[in-house]
Every structure is written in C-alpha cells, then in structure tokens.
Amino acid sequence: MFVMEKELEEGYRERGETESALELEARAESRKNLINSMMWDPQAGFYKDFNFVSNSRCGEITLAGVYPLYFGIASRAQAEKVKDRLMEDFLKAGGLVSTLRITGQQWDAPNGWAPLQWMSVQGLWKSGYTSEARDIMERWLALNRRVYREEGKMMEKYNVVDTTLLSGGGEYPTQDGFGWTNGVALGFRDLLLEMED
C-alpha cells in the first residue's frame, strides 16, 4: 500500500494535481509511521509481523523483516540493525535462512527461498550495504550452481545451512526448476557483473 500511495502521489504531481498528490503523500507518510510504530521491535532490532487479534508483534523473526528496507520505510539506524541481524543470525553457508527456527516445515530453517534472498539483497543494496548484499548473492549463486551441476536442475528452495544436502520439509516434495529461482539467479548474476564494471 505504501508503494502504491507513493506511485500515485508521483503520478498526481506529474499531472499537476497538487492537492491529490499531497493527500497521497500524507497517507504514505502515515502508513510508514504506522509500520514503524507497530512492526519495528527495538529490542530485537528487527521488523516483525503484527497480530491484529492480540494487538501485538509476533514473536518470530523472519526474513519478512527486510521488506521495510526494500521499500524505503526503514530509517538508516533501523536498516543498520536489520543488516546486523541478517549477517549475524540469518546468513549461512548458502545464503539466508527464511526463519531462525527448525520445524521441518518448508519455509523454516534450514531452507532458503529465492524471493526472500532477492528482497534481502535489494533491501541491503538500497540501504547502502553493498558488500553484505554481495556476500549473500555470491553464497546463494554458489549453492545454485553446485546443486545444478549435481542434479541438472534448479530447485524451488535450497538447504542454505548444510549445502551438501538438498532442501526438504513441508507438505509436498521440493519442486524441480522454478521461475523465481531462475530469475533471482539471473538478477544476481547481472548485479555482480555491474559491481565488477
């Protein structure tokens, strides 16, 4: 919603509709403040989901906490704390785990998922943490390449903790070949090539 409000604001400004642009700007700023007040956990140094039933932040820390970096909602200080948590707690040999819990479910550790790698890298990149973003990209791509050499295919998710094992867990077997994995691998490759120029 925040991004849509910002895009609508820009569109209204381009059309010269200042009153509508100001209204959307105020809505976006209000939403940004609400996200930061409800979802930012200063003790954890991370964004958490908010449970509207219990009117409290959820206890889990997941990679969903990087979205405010990606969308420009986090302050510089918040972005730095998120970066620190990512690099200290989430970063493993093959990239970032999706959560810090090992439950046997597919979205939890030891698994890493391409879309969350992308959002994390892009959020770090936009916040100025290019060396950290590069480290994650290189680990993820190395794992993608190794599994591809051994299995002859890309996978929907990867075991980023023990890179000698395939991913697992969840309610169905790991799927072969996956558009988002292919797209993220190509996107990371292009970003790394840009960094070398």
What can you see in these coordinates?
- With 197 residues, the chain is mostly helical.
- 54% of the residues lie in helices and 9% in strands.
- It contains 7 helices and 8 strands, in the order ααββββααβββααβα.
- The chain has a two-stranded antiparallel sheet with strand order 1-2.
- A hairpin with a 2-residue loop joins strand 5 and strand 6 (95-96).
- Helix 5 (114-126) runs antiparallel to helix 6 and helix 6 packs across helix 7.
- The two termini are 35 Å apart.
- The model has no long low-confidence stretch (mean pLDDT 94).
Considering the chains and any ligands shown, give keywords for the structure.
197 residues, mainly alpha, 7 helices, two-stranded antiparallel sheet, single chain, globular, 8 strands
Topology:
Elements: H1 2-14, H2 18-39, E1 40-41, E2 46-47, E3 50-51, E4 56-57, H3 67-70, H4 76-90, E5 91-92, E6 95-96, E7 111-113, H5 114-126, H6 130-151, E8 157-159, H7 179-196
Antiparallel strand pairs: 1-2, 3-4, 5-6, 7-8
